[in-house]
Structures are given as C-alpha cells and as structure tokens.
Amino acid sequence: MAIDWDSLTFSFTATDIMYTATCNQGEEWQKGELVPYGNISISPAAGVLNYGQGLFEGMKAQRSVNGGIVLFRPERNGKRLTDGALRLGMPPVPLEMFLEAVEEVVAANARWVPPTGKGALYIRPVLWGSGPILGVAPAPEYTFMIYVCPVGPYFKGGMHPIALKVSDDHHRAAPGGSGAVKAIGNYAPGMMPSKNAKKEGFAEIIYLDSVEHKYIEEVGAANFFCVKDGVIYTPELTGTILPGITRASIIDLARHRGYEVIEERVDIDFVLESDECFCAGTAAVISPIGAICKGEICTTYCNNQVGPVTQELYDALTSIQTQTAADEFGWIRAVPIPNLPAK
Ligand code: PLP
Ligand code: COI
C-alpha cells in the first residue's frame, strides 16, 4: 500500500522488520537478529510487566537532502540507555551493538523513511526485564528490541504555538528517583493529568519541581526553554529531569550562534514574565509555546506566533538534521544502505 507522506502524525504504524536480542542475567549480550515485525510472546510474570523494569529510547532517522538516510547523535541515545539500564538493574547493551542494531533495523525498513521535510522514521529501542520473577528483584532474562514507525509532528499542526498548563497537583519525578532516565514507569503517571489538560484545550502539562513546587522541570516528554532579553534559560540537570539530546544540541547551537545560555533553576514566575518559550525533544523537535497558564494567570508569548529565537534555532537544528546545512558539530551518522532508491 502506498504511504500518504502528507498526512503523517505522531502515531503507531506497523512496519516491516524489528530487531530482537536477549541476554540472561550475569551473561554477555549476544548479537540479535532482524525478524518480521509482529507480536511477541512473554511470561505474565515478566519483570517489566509486574515491576516496570524497563526503559525506552526515542530517536529519528531522516532522509537527508543528499539522498541518504541519517541519524542524529545516536551514540548519545546508546549512552543514555546504558545509564538507565544501570539505574534499573539491567545489563547495559554495549554501544557498538546498539548502534549496529539501530542501523540494521533502519536499513531494513528504509522504505518507511519519509521524504525530506515530510517527517521522520521514529526509532524506538526498548530494554525490558523479560524473564519471570515473583519477588521484587531484577529479572533473570532481558530483551532488547527496536521497532520503527514513520511519524509526522508530535503536536498537532507542527510548528504552531501550543498552550500549556502548569500542573498544580502532580509531579513527574522526585530527587533520588528515576526522572533522569527513560524508565517506562515515568510515563503512565503523566497520562491522566495530560488527558485532563487536553480536555481543557491545552496541548500538554508543565511540571514543577516536587520539593518547592516553583521551578520548571519539563513539558510532558520534552525539555523546556525560555528567552528573556535575548538570553536563553533552561532548567539545569538536577537528576529529576531527562538529559535531552535535543536540549544539549540546542544549548551548543545557541552558544555557537552567540547567545548566552543559562542552565539553572527556572522559576515559573520568571517564565510568566519572559519573552518567548519553547520545548524540545526528539518527538517534539522544537515546538513554540504560545501560552502558559498557572491557575488563573495566563501569559501569551509573541502574540501566539512563533518567536524569533525559536524559529532561528528550529531552522538551525532541522537543517543540520536533514543535511541542508553543514554538520559543523559532527552530529550526523549516515546509515549504510545499499541501492537506496532516490526519493
Ligand atoms: N524529557 C522527557 C521526559 C522525554 O521523554 C524526552 C524524550 O525523549 C525528552 C525530555 C527529550 O529528550 P530527547 O531530546 O533526547 O528526545
Ligand atoms: C521522544 O521525544 O523521543 C520521546 O520519547 C517522547 C515520547 C515519550 C513520545
């Protein structure tokens, strides 16, 4: 069936091939295999199903303007998977095995990579405690899988300002918890608050820190930035927010372009007085924020248009990701694909 590249959204599509590898506790990972995409069989007593011993990653493969298929800083995802595996008591997947697996699964699904500018192939590596375990303890067996889906914009309308609600009564992570890794258990508790905010017309929730309930943490599944008097601010990595790869890249790009970027605790009251805000992540790319409401207090930014700094950084980031601009930082990794048809 022909794929309608113009109507892609951020939603699930079954593709052709997935990657799977397993490892017993205390043993080394062995190279996995490519298999047809499909359901899997797993014990009802699996650690991941009962105790949430699981992690995921999110990355994108894009069709470069040069015709190839490229990844953006995939080694960073591999490193973050390792950090998360250690936090959750799972055997880390060696970086070389991770990168090879990502490349293999992308190459095997090359026909699903959208044309340049129409979207991306979202890559979802997962690491699960797949063996049965009754007591609360690390599972006896682990599964590393990767599946992929062609996706369009994460927020409806793409590069269109979104309205966000500051959560009054929910937090995403606490000091000493798992907020700094992509633990699967970090996501379900956000679903109800996010759904309620959507019913009120907001695109997502902004979480504040769980100790003082004052400092911005994250926007759902993306990192937060604001601009005040030409200076860019973003919450520092305190151990409760995810160290986003897009976040790190934006900081480097902005500094390279002459902006001062300050990583510190960002007070919500300061944000409500700032000039421009956006959020950033692999799925969200850079998404402009048009309004933030905290209780009855709402601030509209840039007349609900895309702000100038947001647009500049979006253009700078996406042009590197599609190779429209030179890869000055060495962030792009080409996926070797024999006989790739031109799009
Ligand atoms: N914060 C959370 C909670 C996320 O799930 C994500 C998505 O991965 C991000 C931030 C952004 O991280 P990255 O830019 O590495 O995708
Ligand atoms: C990503 O940006 O890759 C994410 O993980 C967001 C996701 C939870 C949809």
Question: Would you mind describing this structure in some detail?
Answer:
With 343 residues, the protein is an alpha+beta fold. The chain has 2 domains: 147 residues, Aminotransferase class 4, branched-chain amino acid transferase, N-terminal domain (D-amino Acid Aminotransferase, Chain A, domain 1, 2-Layer Sandwich); 144 residues, D-amino Acid Aminotransferase, Chain A, domain 2. Helix content is 21%, strand content 28%. The chain has 7 helices and 17 strands. The strands form 2 sheets. Strands 8, 9, 10, 11, 12, 13, 14, 15 and 16 form a 9-stranded mixed sheet that branches. Helix 2 packs across helix 3. It is globular and about 55 Å long. The relative contact order is 0.16. The model has no long low-confidence stretch (mean pLDDT 96). The site of 2-OXO-4-methylpentanoic acid has 5 residues, from loops.
State the name of the first-level CATH class of the largest domain.
Alpha Beta
Shape: globular
The largest sheet is: 9 strands, mixed
Indicate the low-confidence ranges by residue numbers.
Answer: none
Strand content: 25-35%
Q: What is the domain tally?
A: 2
The portion of residues assigned to helices is: 10-25%
Instruction: Quote the CATH topology of the largest domain.
Output: D-amino Acid Aminotransferase, Chain A, domain 1
